[in-house]
Structure prediction request, 890 residues.
Amino acid sequence: MEIVRSQRRNGSDGSGSAASLPLYKSAPSLEFRLEEFGQYAIDRLRVLQAISDGLSRGKKPEEMENLVSEQWRANMKHQDADKTLRKDIISHFVLRLVYCREEEMRRWFLSMETALFRYRFRLQNAEAQKSIMNELQLQYNVLGNAEYETIKDKLTEAARSVNFTSNPETVFYKVPFEDVPELVASRRVFILKGFAFVPRNQVVSLVCTIFRSNISKALALTNRKWRAMIQDQEKDRIAPMVEALGNVYLGPDYSKPKDCAEISLKDINQLASTSFPLCMRHLFGKLREDHHLKHQGRMQLGLFLKGVGLKLEDALAFWRAEFSQKVGAERFDKEYAYSIRHNYGKEGKRTDYTPYSCQKIIMSTPSTGDHHGCPYRHFSEENLRAALNKMGVGGRAMDDIMDKVRNRHYQLACTLTFEATHGTSCETGINHPNQYFVESRKFFESKNKQSQPTA
Amino acid sequence: MTKEKEEHREDPMQIDSNRVPTGSLLTDYLRIYYGKFFPYTDMFKWLAYGNDGKHPGCDSSYFGRREFSFTIKSDRDEVYLRFQSFFNASEMETSIKAKCPTKIDIGAVYTVDPAKRHAYAQSGFNPIERELVFDIDISDYDDVRYCCSGADTCLNCWPLMTIAIKVIDTALREDFGFSHILWVYSGRRGVHCWVCDSRARRLSKEQRSAIADYFHVYKGGENSLKKVTFSGPLHPFLARAYTDALKNEFEKWVSTQKLFEHEERFHKILQLIPDESVVSELAEKWQGNSVRWEHLKHMLQSGSKKTQGLRRCIEEIVFSYTYPRLDIQVTKGMNHLLKAPFCVHPGTGRICIPIDPKKCEEFDPTSVPTVAQLIEELNANASIGADNYVEKTSLAASVHLFRTCFLEPLIKTCKDELENAYNTMMQQTKDSLNW
Prediction:
């Protein structure tokens, strides 16, 4: 068995990194025991799950760094750095095998591994980061002096726009803009003729995009190999373990409403005013008022209602009742009914779409004529206060909520709203509109039970 | 309308070129338009991207893997046919002439011929190439224009589209390095942009999203007040947009839309200023139109007020009114269907003609040829015995623009790329065969 050293070596394990943060370029030629196969994978999965949880609660980057550091230490770290690295590599490749098999799983794994890599990279010291960048051959992209001179004014301008002072010592990397989509999207870098000029302090984004792209390709390849040979070859040994690992619970996505959680149309008004989170109340109200919603609004509200237990036939009746008052029943049937059935997985690709989480809603970009999005983020203070007033929130609670909003803790603001309107505390914190609804129903159900006379 | 009224017969249709055709009249006009005017060969050459040649590097399946969709209106119904595909220009022409669609949309290039998609597993049918596209609609600016609203536009408010073209076109070329860009009038109230460089066609959804967000400055739904906020010095792209276009256009806008003459209009601007004391001071002192705007600028730029959020207030106001408002979702998707150039807009009868970005200030949406007008010209030419009738109509200029400014340079680049890719591949094969 080859010993994996954490210091300077050149990929005898095939993973290729001098630092303790591997790039997982190719499967290691290590031998390990079957028990390690399962256990290592589960430990790593705990870390990935914690990351998933943290992200959906909207944790800030610094908080995520701490989370990753703690989780890594709790689940993966070994006294012996070599052993840690070995476990790191083995667990990654085992999980690659487990999660390559379905598109949703690949997407989740890719996102979590990239996030894990991102925060671990941030925690590395400058030397270690530099050697990882050399691994990725980024030293060839360093901006030369001559070119620097021609654009230095613009580089300074771009740096100042994100509150960063660059100096002549700052190293810049010249890469195709496709390699740093996040930086382009947020206008944090200067771009010219298709190239982005990434200052050293933004290099995390670049490194992560490359990492993500490599893992993505690897997953696709692994999937093909699995289907073509491995699944069959390993049917008695590893395949059953892989199946089992794949079924590990990943947290509720509210796409299949639980047993008796179905709601009927006649209850919907009542439920909207007592148990819908503000974002859905607002959309629901606008729909009743205008008898119309634009596409994203229909998606956000429609999928939420599906998650809440509204059946397809009832959904069609509900939307038709509203839309036909504006566009007529015929146009509704022709133009809008299709997409409702599509949401329920009855048309086209037959994907059963999942209701949007808070993270997704907060990150959406409502535009002219839109009412979707997260009110705590997208409403002006005035409009938000008015909306919360209508829900019966006032006084001290209102101030606390506004304070959270100003500090951009939108989900905490929503949690406080829940607490204010229900008169109870919400320990878990809201990270999904359907969760708000479920918690609210739970609260009212238990209240009803209490007020009923004992048999 | 009876069938005998074909184009080259003795009895030309009585055309009222001021009337927007609907129903069966529209269908008849479309039949003539598709029969005589629609530039099939040019469209084919464009979308084949050089693969229609004889070079061994050409992929003859390429054009056939492109999705088109047709909207077909009969008297009462509207039918929407997706996943149409054609092997070559002639098949496309036959199909369009036979079906006479009121609208033709262009979708993505897929891994396989869309018509055969059911034969493949779900994972086997995916979009792999698609132009980078933008859609700008003047009705998204209704809150800042007072001359028109909704689907209408006039020469007073059309400059908003001109600004959008200038800002985005410059950024696409200068910042992103794209060069094969086609701007098209959407037929009524907006413009579309097709970026056709191969690099653009191969962008992933994430990269398109990043570009869309790069351009996304005017943000916020119906319920947010301030749609543009700058927390610090402007990024070079925004600074350039401001200095080269928006600043001066806003000055003109102030005057054409009389922004400071009416209370409800300047009230909206005052709402964007995050300082109560400034707002009340201004509201007290104001008298005439231009004086107010100068006064406002002076007050906000003098730096005498240290309130947070005031430093970039002028820029925020200017951007709120004039910065391009894109439909972000159109740009982000890889299989969003977008109307093809040279379609007839059923609501106005106007042809969706290309716009030269270098001369976009000269573009006049009110004088774009209509299908009725073209048919009238065609008849007039025919009756005086001119040959090459179509060349002598108002559409000729547009087709010429399409060819010289867009198609020819694009095809040249495509052929070069195909040859280079082929030569590289041949070289690699040779190398790998060498012992």
